[in-house]
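The protein record filed here:
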Amino acid sequence: MLTVLALASVLFLGTVPEQARAIVIYTGWERHAVLGADVRLSCSFFSWHWTSEEVTFSWTYRADGSRDSISIFHYTGGVAYLDNKGPFRDRLEFVGNPARRDGSILLKSVDFGDNGTFTCDAKNPPDISGRPSSVRLLVFEKVPIQAGVITGSIIGTVLGLLILIVAIYYLMRFLVARRVFSLNVSKHGKKKKETQQRQGPAPAVDPSKVKPGSGSGSAPASSEKKKQESRKDKK
């Protein structure tokens, strides 16, 4: 179903006139950093056209508690213009690759005063209309455990418990089956023994009632007769 919706979206967007197509800009939602560390703020875009030589990137910054934004970076005509007067003077570096639609910047030695919202805007003529994207920077003495890590730990614990429960279930089934098998074998042995006891021992044969020449008694008589005939022949 999702695949069908995605294909439908692509076909729909493909039918939109070029004048109505807008550039789409991407940044992270929130970025955490440790006091004194360097942090990379990523910015990229999607455009319906090839990357233009006139591609531009612009970054602005609004400190927490402030209503005004200031320009801290601008890239145009293949040249990067860095903030050399504001709060990021000598601490800002362009690390993007415009040819790959990457306008990322690097903030060095971040401080608590750097907390705020960073907004990236990009243009790729003739795609020039689009909504800028923002990322919020939070500086800590120690990076806190993120919600994703906690969620992953909870999911891992639940899966571990489920695996343990399934293992215990199959172990109990095995032990029960083994016990039932042992009981069946024991009952079968007892029934066989009781049957033999009910039938009693085999009756003894009285030698006096055995007729000469029958059964095993005929074998010695026949042997003796053969010996006598052999003696006569020798004489």
In short: The chain has a mean pLDDT of 79. The first helix runs from residue 2 to 14.
